[in-house]
Amino acid sequence: MRVAVVLGVVLSGCIATRDRGAADWSGRAATYKTPEVLRCAKFKAGGAPAAQCAEAKYLGEVYVRKLATGDEVCLEGGFGDEPTSACQARATIVDTATNRVLVEVRNVRPESKWFKHEQSQFWFEEGALVDLYVAEHGY
Is 90 among the domain residues? Predict the structure, then answer.
């Protein structure tokens, strides 16, 4: 009986399962990790640019934490704002998990860096999306 249980457990580990957000041959979506060096670190503390960057970071954190399944976002040309005609790459939030968001790239213009990734899904750590927000707001 024990051999059958052990064999069942071992065999169940060999069955491939598709991860949420699977985008490649391995069945797993690529993940954009939080940068090791924060974008606002390049500014000297106490100066106006440092304070403005810190405010943008805070607003980015608030925006990212409010994202929910079904929300549309602009990945290029206005992340953090409602997607408008200026948006180069529109995406939809497909799933959320602790400290990460699954994004599916939907409508992309040919000049966008996301053009070859249309209809693909990517996990973004919250910090990576906050960094994108800060970058899109000029820092």
Answer: yes
Task: Give φ, ψ of 53 to 5 degrees.
Answer: -65, -40
State yes or no: pLDDT of 31 exceeds 50: yes
Domain range for 83: 21-136
Per mean pLDDT, which range of 11-20, 25-34, 51-60 is the poorest?
Answer: 11-20
Instruction: Read off the tokens for 83.
Output: 């997607």
Please tell me the distance from the alpha carbon of residue 125 to that of residue 34, in angstroms, as a whole number. 6
Find all residues with CB under 8 Å of 86, minimum gap 6, and list them: 77, 78
Quote the tokens at residue 98. 């602790």
Quote the CA–CA distance of 121 and 35 in Å, as a whole number.
Answer: 20
Q: Could you tell me if residue 10 is inside a domain?
A: no
Residue owning tokens 């970071």: 57
pTM of the model: 0.78
What pLDDT does residue 5 have?
44
**Encoded tokens for 73:** 């976002």
Number of domains in the chain: 1
Give the Cα separation of 81 and 45 in Å (integer): 28
CA 138 to the chain's CA centroid: 19
